[in-house]
Protein 1
Amino acid sequence: MNFSKSEELHKEALEHIVGGVNSPSRAYKAVGGGSPVYMERGDGAYFYDVDGNKYIDYLAAYGPIITGFNHPHIAEAIKHAATNGVLYGTPTQLENKFAKMLKEAIPSLEKVRFNNSGTEAVMTTVRVARAYTGRTKIIKFAGSYHGHFDAVLVQAGSGPSTLGTPDSAGVPASTAADVITVPFNDLDAYKEALDKWGDQIAAVLVEPIVGNFGIVEPHEGFLQGVNDLTHQAGALVIYDEVITAFRFTYGSAQQLYGVEPDMTAMGKIIGGGLPIGAYGGRKEIMEQVAPLGPAYQAGTMAGNPASMAAGIACLEVLAGEGVYEKLDRLGEKLEKGILEKALVHGISITVNRLRGALTVFFGEGTITNYEQAEATDGEAFGRFFKLMLNQGINLAPSKYEAWFLTTEHTEADIDQTIDAVGHAFEVMAA
Ligand code: PLP
């Protein structure tokens, strides 16, 4: 495949845009370097780059594009918003409609608020939890990503009950000192952290199904255990459902496991491809937020009509008959096909899959926490990524990301992808 125009554009981008990209995960640093492909147009499950190459896409823009690119119902909603004045700075009916849709789909949301990104949504839940509890410290799980505000750019200290250290330059040590990081799926470590810091903890941030060190499900009883222990300590449970809301079911991960958090942060899918964040939860907690309460959160673009219209349209598509069954069926076919090819060519992999999302880890053994995901073979993934790209299959350029299916993928796309996987594994085994 010829990538010459992408390479030229990347050279130009490097002159003007830091690192050539507007989000670091878009660079190919984690897959051995090189110029990222520059996409020009997306349609359904496919997109087309500036060199005229066509790809079956599994990146789905890191999650939001669950109904494929250019879905007619969503495109129409965005077109209408574009010609209807775009932005007013006043409330609109769309916000009411969308808030009601979210509440109906996710019962723990007694009140919601819209903002502009997953980062903003999670950041505000932390502020509100601190306002509500009058406490400062938070707990998060190692390897989870919650956006790019200071309090979550913190890495674990030397053990589950030690305070964190900054994971990015510019994050003050004083901020990191308010964050404790424990391993996912390890209730004993969680309890140890609470035993030590429990009376200072405002909230725990949980990705109920992890999407950021691959797709990793919670062990049976883990989420309920976290809920019980957190509440015993007088702290709040915040679910970061930025990836998981509407990814696996019409609703959220909390419904899949029957565990309710106090607050939930969302983003990605609920914007139908436009910028969005939203958070919500128990009424008395949400009423801490201005103008009712003392916790401030605002936004010029918050609840903007275009994002509202696209989000409503996206949920309308997802509410259709058989959507999640189809995603599961295609996901299962893809998983089986990948595992079969690995067996044929003697490649050691582990596939973690839930419905229409999966991660292929290079290495043996189950992956249930970040330490295990970290130990998988990144170099092998980098080779695999490029071999797939060269066959017109676009994956996320990192061993920690998921492959996301969309409603627009077909059985034939899956067959073509499995063939490409077979070829990639054959080359890797040679
Ligand atoms: N939370 C989770 C679980 C995410 O995966 C992400 C982004 O990937 C975020 C929060 C941040 O969302 P955004 O990139 O919209 O700010």
Protein 2
Amino acid sequence: MSAQHLENHPEWSGRLAFILASAGSAVGLGNIWKFPYIMGDNGGGAFVMIYLACLLIVATPILISEVMLGRRARSNPIIGMGKLADQAGVSRGWQVIGWMGVLTGFLILSFYSVVMGWALSYVEKAANGAFVGASPDTIKGLFDGLVGNPGSLLFWHTVAMVMTVAVVARGVRGGLELATRIMMPLLIVILVLLFGYNIGTPGFAPAMEFMFAPDFSRVTAETFLVALGHAFFTLSLGMGAIMVYGSYMPRGTSIVRAGIWIIVLDTGIALLAGMVIFPIVFSNGMSPEQGAGLIFQTLPLALGQMEWGYWLAIVLFVLVSIAAWTSAISLVEPAVSYLWERFGIRRLHSAIAVGLSTWSLGVLAALSFNLLGDLTLFGKNVFGLLEFTTANILLPAGGMLIALFAAWRMPRADSAEELGLTGWRYRLWWWLAAIVAPLGVALVFLNGLGVFG
Ligand code: PHE
Ligand code: NA
């Protein structure tokens, strides 16, 4: 590792830029595609409550810890954890956080890019007017037709991957910042608009009940695992993306305040997405348990019946695609910044190398909806397996290690200085990161293994 590379470590143009970029990473398919569909599969309100509890008690202190480690190390997660371990006088084994993160990002991107491809293909369908006045059966047919067709799935998966590599290759300032500035406000406006349209529909009241009146009879050990996993997934937490973005964060910016902003934005958009999707589900007598196709079978239906729906559908799927895009680039960033800082490999080359290997695994994920549908393990196909293990196991495990290192290994003076916290505020963070959050992850894991019956 030469000093020259580290001096080249880039920085955001300011505080807002950090929040925007991290929110760009956080807000993505997790909010608009995944949250509604896993909420639907897990019974609604009770799931939402467990998810919010995980967010508050477990994910928030870990998010603050991850940003803090990144900014302290001013480096990519692998080299950065090595530096922090040296400073703390502990084993470099903690670098496993960085290695695991790079692997997790690679695994997530492989299926994320497939779903981003779905969103892109829906831009095309919207532009062709495919949704205008379409019946539920027609809309369902469009989705089944897409996932049943290996050729078009692979085409859109490839487009998504090329888009991702192109931005990563351009670097932090040029590529990552710009996209979020425009996307985030627009996305919120459109969702609010759709929400307003929904208020008058017959499905609105049942939808609110479904989302906010918890029915704990349907809660299982897996519900906890999925809710916890989603708290990590939706915040891009536990795999180094937030660490790497934190490393580009200028000093003197409050980590806690920025972290809270990111969580509020991400959660707000997820809940809003739910409040847009479920009224459509109930107004049309559909089942909330549609699985991964949920938003692709509901949004077009409502949009197809609305005045201006043709244009709104185009704009909405463009925005979903952009939201996915700004998340996808953050999945590759830890690997790319490592390859640059460790070996001096140019962004263009490393982005292409990482993109190609991720693309290959993504091909298997895409084909698991059709040709490889019979290839299953524990009742899950390749796509389902990738989705389940990354979000529900690898991210919480990574997050737990991050919290343990930040609280138990890093000198307290360092963490206090970096966080800008003193007194009870510092102690609160410390207790949450040292004990509550790791314990929470451990309990959910043990529960998932059936230890508590
Ligand atoms: N947070 C992103 C989303 O909600 C997904 C993601 C996970 C991105 C992990 C980066 C790292 O869509
Ligand atoms: Na998210």
